[in-house]
Fold this sequence. Notes:
The structure holds two protein chains of two kinds. Chain A is of the alpha/beta class. Chain A has a single domain (2-216), classed as P-loop containing nucleotide triphosphate hydrolases (Rossmann fold, 3-Layer(aba) Sandwich). Chain A has helices at 11-27, 42-53, 70-76, 95-101, 146-149, 151-155, 175-185, 202-216; strands spanning 2-8, 30-36, 59-65, 82-86, 112-116, 133-139, 157-163, 190-193. A seven-stranded parallel sheet of chain A has the order 4-3-5-2-6-7-8, with helices on both faces. In chain A, strand 7 (157-163), helix 7 (175-185) and strand 8 (190-193) form a beta-alpha-beta unit. Helices cover 27% and strands 32% of the residues of chain B. Chain B is built from two helices and six strands; from the N terminus they run αβαβββββ. By secondary structure, chain B is an alpha+beta fold. The mean pLDDT of chain B is 96. At the A-B interface, strand 1, helix 1, helix 6 and helix 7 of A face helix 1 and strand 6 of B. Strand 1 of chain A pairs antiparallel with strand 6 (105-112) of chain B, so a sheet runs across the interface.
Amino acid sequence: MQIKVMTNILERNDQVAAALQERFKKAGILVINLLGSPGCGKTSLLEKTIKALKETLSIAVIEGDLFTAKDAERIEEHGVPVVQINTGGGCHLDANMIHDVLDCLDLGVLDMIVIENVGNLVCPAEFNIGEDCKVTVLSITEGDDKPLKYPLIFKQASAVILNKVDLLPYTNFDLKAAEKDITAIHPGVTLLPVSCQTGEGLEVWFNWLIKQVQIKKGKESK
Amino acid sequence: MHEMSIAQGILDIVLKTAAEHNAVKISCIKLLIGQMTQVEPESLKFGFAALAANTIADSAVVDITIIPLVGKCNSCGQQFTVERYSFLCPLCHSANILVVSGRELAVDYLEVE
């Protein structure tokens, strides 16, 4: 006997993600799902962002990591609430994991939560975790072939950060080619070349984030 | 390996569906996987077989159909196969493209006894 099913395999995850999204909407909190390879500079970007914006915005961080709390310890030093999720070998965060830790945060006082996903260009792109937008970080040292090799994570991102641009003179990374590939995969994506080392371009990123928070709070139109 | 999470999702769906139809054995599971998902079919089959052990799906054949990545231009109406992940209309070069197919991750149907 044949039974027609036609069910989305990620439906359960998407249902939990939708419920989270509703909770964040009610609380007026912007939620960023921060993605990228191990070592691309996600935590460094987060540290710079918290340093620059913590007087303007009330920020909390959820740190995804396979086993360690190393990133959470780095964030904690900046004096913002941080929750660690260890996936125990899992290559991505899913909506249930976020649901399970939310009570650790005081949603009533927050403007923004940044969820640093597990370092990986593949799996995190498939799982919604209740975020408003995904932000993908690609660093110069990873090579300009990555957008075409891992297109989904660039297609799903609202903004792509090209980090470590201070290293451009020392690599064969073709910035123009990478930008061309990323915009072909995702026309209209916000593309932000930055260096967490020198601070180049970070102001633009901070302003982009502030604008997204204002949009979320209904203070500014898209 | 996110295929394991996806395999678990498939198992949950097929066991629930089979129970609703009082099936005693699942012989075939037909999946639709879009070209622009990052699922490796062999890893998915391997993961599913491991999870389905000792269930009524433990000897099920997992049959995967890959759905091509197709876009439709909202400006000129042209429908096209997306090549090299370029989401620009090949006809009018508009960037206003709707993804028609290629993002599927679904259980299509089951064959049960």
